[in-house]
Fold:
Amino acid sequence: MAVIDNVCDLYPTPPRKAYTWPALWDFPREMRRVGLRDAWFQLRFWHSRPWLAHLLSDRYLSREQFRGLYGSVFPGARFDDLGFALGMVWTAPTSGEVALMSGSEQG
Structure:
């Protein structure tokens, strides 16, 4: 099983400018990459009220909270820091491993 989710150690919800400013800064590069029409569409999308309302409704876990929550549900999981996100990889134990962990296997 793999889980990847955004995390933020500073605050549970990044401020509006965390989404709008990068869209402005990236506009010239996007214009060269996809053309004026599509870059303008992207800029308007990133500044649209519905999209910003969606983004501002998100509540991010800190890295510590992410590891604690998912580590408690998926013991032995591996966590990878992806910068703005954390990834968790977990492999379910085999039935033999489960028996050993539970102490139900006789030796």
Remarks:
- The mean pLDDT is 90.
- Strands lie at 2-6, 78-81, 85-89.
